[in-house]
Amino acid sequence: MARIVMKFGGTSMAGIERIRNVASRVKREREAGNEVLVVVSAMAGETDRLVQLCREASALSDPKEYDVVVASGEQVTAGLLAMTLQGMGLKARSFMGWQLVRSVGAHGNSRIEAIERELLDEALHGGTVAVIPGFQGVSEDGRVTTLGRGGSDTSAVGIAAGVGADRCDIYTDVDGVYTTDPRIVPRARKLDFITFEEMLELAGVGAKVLQTRSVGLAMRENLPLRVLSAFEDLPGTEVVAELGADMERNTIAGIATDRNEAKITLTRLADRAGVVGAVLGPLAEAGIAIDMIVQAASREGAESDITFTVPTASLHQAMAVIETRKADIGYDEMLFDPNVAKVSIVGVGIRSNPALAATMFKALAEARINLIAVSASEIKVSALMTEDQMETAVRVLHTAFGLDSRPDEKAAGAAA
Amino acid sequence: MARIVMKFGGTSMAGIERIRNVASRVKREREAGNEVLVVVSAMAGETDRLVQLCREASALSDPKEYDVVVASGEQVTAGLLAMTLQGMGLKARSFMGWQLVRSVGAHGNSRIEAIERELLDEALHGGTVAVIPGFQGVSEDGRVTTLGRGGSDTSAVGIAAGVGADRCDIYTDVDGVYTTDPRIVPRARKLDFITFEEMLELAGVGAKVLQTRSVGLAMRENLPLRVLSAFEDLPGTEVVAELGADMERNTIAGIATDRNEAKITLTRLADRAGVVGAVLGPLAEAGIAIDMIVQAASREGAESDITFTVPTASLHQAMAVIETRKADIGYDEMLFDPNVAKVSIVGVGIRSNPALAATMFKALAEARINLIAVSASEIKVSALMTEDQMETAVRVLHTAFGLDSRPDEKAAGAAA
């Protein structure tokens, strides 16, 4: 017997027919002898409807009241699922966020602090399925809070950790985590296994399969996750701390893309100690994260250009900050370009296997893709390029690393 | 400075534009220096939508889960109104039913036990408008409860009593309480004042202006109510314990109708002591309320017929109960007729003024209306007739008691 959390997203809960499908899956786990907690999202579209009502009510809506309004969507689906399970002969009851989930931090974007597990343990020991609205909790002063958009994943993982669950299954409208965005590479392959760290790096690829915060939380709690289709019986992707011997692969996990960076270049900086700090210090103070940096000597030798990337949303703020420090930094020109993209190969052990980086740069060079900057971490090598070259880069890398699925593979998977 | 509760129904809360209108009325009361609590219904149609979802989810939906689902509608409007008030520059916050309203009794039909007034007092003393979802509370074991359909009126009165409010204003889509159903008598007149007891008797007339339970509660708490239009600036109707000298009228308050009774006649009962008890005892045991009773000697003299009314919804059950006791009771035939109606004149002091009853019977006789049964109480005289005679009876009585408004009166009222 295992204790498991099953999480279902808005598409899976959109209407009574789909809620019945969810109930059938819950019933199967229960009949396999598991203790089951279910975390549910609001019906697809409902949270958007409620957010829109808040916007219409007041341009500057109070986050405390916003939380009261938008938290109602999951309350409805939790009650409906509990009823549906009862109708199928299971013991089930709903719990409200305020009964279970103590949270801290700003309204509209709270963090789970603790789970009141006594009520849940009692229900589970009695064979009752616990149905819990995702995305919400209660503040120290007893007010309804929400965890931010997509927060139901975080609820599921936080509740799983809080009740000592053996695993957390995230049911969604895709059937797992893919090697890359299938819209760019139609032959992208579903991964059977992926590590938490790889998952965090691949989270930006295509459809947001899992909220990043929930993956980080599961990693810290060492809680195994599975990403599964809510609609088809497929094995999905297991997200684990380390790849076991049976999960080995001799290539990367996948290829991540990121269009949300912009490039800033400052020309002809004095080549003196501390000049990089003079640029980056004020940006850090302003809360602007810098990702890639490259410093290149200019023709004269005593001066150099510096190029770095910031989130596109922060580009104008970053430029304003630098402008005010121009005298202090001492550059000639500030150039910028929002039309850049970052392509990364992601996989455990990348740094310890230089052949992988070599394969990457060879493939990109053969495709005549100019690299603006390069960076590397324990599990990732990234290359910055102009945005119009991104899709080509992803495709050649996908092929070079042997990730393309065989034409018959997806069909075989669907039949399993 | 007064402490007042303002209650707004679903029609008044249907959409952001109408919520803004509600907020304007709240603002006016606040700016007059009053401490204000607002009790809100769900948007018109929303509770029906949620109830329908529950029905689809499970034919036998668990009342505890039903409550979780349907209580969400008022949660949304409470948050939206609090935001809107803030947007107009007022201090406001929403409270949830589970934070304030302790309830007892069956889920789906709970009663208010107590109001946690500390939180409310604190808010009101600080100049904050308290916005509270109607229709709901929390059970002793911490689960969401609802008070039954129309329960927002009861919430408003219960909360007003619990916080020692000076009065409770019920804003609705009619502009007050009328002398009778305006669909039957277009010249029905709005009453400026009515007593609680009269209001209880007139509750059945036409649109249910106020939930009966809420009127009974206000009467016990001696809490003045006002029924007002949410859309027009009209004086409405004040519901009070006793008519003051300035509220005197020399006629009845109004005319009530009731189509929801059915008539049962048992023929040729032995004219012996205890025969009425033999009929009514088993019905009382079965929980069936009997209203009017008339016993009439039959031609032979040693036997009599007995006729009484039961709620139409209980007619078949009542007949089944009597059928099983036929030998015991000893009647010849059981006849029944669901097509009867009760017309009542209502007003304080009716019993002490026999001229009123005389006026009633004279008017009905002149209109050739046959009375099946008659009953009287302190504030009411009722006549049972066939349903097809009901509307005529109401019209002649309305004229006979001088209740018809002058042709120009409604226009004058609207301009006030």
Structure characteristics:
homodimer, 416 residues, alpha/beta, Carbamate kinase, VC0802-like, 2 domains, eight-stranded mixed β-sheet, four-stranded antiparallel β-sheet, 15 helices, 20 strands, disordered C terminus
Would you kindly provide a written description of the structure presented here, covering whatever features stand out?
The structure is a homodimer of 416-residue chains. Chain A is of the alpha/beta class and 416 residues long. In chain A, the strands form 5 sheets. The first copy, chain A, has an 8-stranded mixed β-sheet with strand order 3-6-2-1-9-11-12-10, sandwiched between helices. A 4-stranded antiparallel β-sheet of chain A has the order 13-18-20-19. A 4-stranded antiparallel β-sheet of chain A has the order 15-16-14-17, covered by helices on one side. The first copy, chain A, has 2 domains: 3-173, Acetylglutamate kinase-like (Carbamate kinase, 3-Layer(aba) Sandwich), CATH 3.40.1160.10; 245-416, VC0802-like. In chain A, 36% of the residues lie in helices and 25% in strands. Chain A has 15 helices and 20 strands. Chain A binds chain B through residues 16, 19, 50, 53-54, 56-62, 64-69, 71-73, 75-76, 78-84, 86-87, 93-94, 96, 98-99, 142, 144, and chain B through 16, 19, 50, 53-54, 56-62, 64-69, 71-73, 75-76, 78-84, 86-87, 93-94, 96, 98-99, 142, 144.
Summarize it.
Chains A, B: It comes from Sphingomonas piscis. Chain A is an alpha/beta fold and 416 residues long. Chain A is built from 15 helices and 20 strands.
